[in-house]
Amino acid sequence: MQFPVWPYLNQPIFNRNHQAIYNPWRFWRTYQVRFLERCWLREYRPEEHYKS
């Protein structure tokens, strides 16, 4: 996984509902955690060719 430059640069800076993360290391860590949470929330579906 590479650093998400575009999401980092497109953070809403003047939005009161969303706090921008200016530290790239902190943004990277937060992005990884959110990515992992989205993966956990996805519904698991086995691939068709593995079914018996």
Short description:
The protein is mostly helical.
Tell me the helix content. 40-55%
Q: What oligomeric state do the depicted chains represent?
A: single chain
> What fraction of residues sit in β-strands?
under 5%
> Strand tally, please?
0
How far apart, in Å, are the first and last alpha carbons? 34 Å
**If you compute it from the alpha carbons, what radius of gyration comes out, rounded to the nearest whole angstrom?**
16 Å
User: What is the total domain count?
Assistant: 1
Largest sheet: none
| Structural class estimated from helices and strands | mainly alpha
User: What is the N-to-C succession of helices and strands?
Assistant: HH
**Average pLDDT score:** 88
Q: How many helical elements?
A: 2
Shape: elongated
Low-confidence stretches: none
Summary tags:
52 residues, 2 helices, mainly alpha, 44% helix
Give an account of the 3D structure.
The chain has 2 helices and no strands. The chain has helices spanning 5-9, 24-41. The longest helix has 18 residues, at 24-41. The termini are far apart.
Topology:
Elements: H1 5-9, H2 24-41
